[in-house]
């Protein structure tokens, strides 16, 4: 009878560990996704677009 209780307890612990690992991996995936979509990239794109406009104006204003 004691063996069944130990097996049930071990199974419950495995389920808890599985759920915990899944939640941690989901949080990690969300975190890395947010890094990829950060504001830094938007600011860099705006800066590069401004540089492109300046260079186009320089090309068009050549005598």
TrEMBL record:
Record keyword Transmembrane present = yes
- Which residues span the membrane? 6-25
Give the UniProt keywords, A-Z: Membrane, Transmembrane, Transmembrane helix
Q: What is this protein called?
A: BhlA holin family protein
Native organism:
Chryseobacterium gambrini
Its lineage opens with:
Bacteria, Pseudomonadati, Bacteroidota, Flavobacteriia, Flavobacteriales
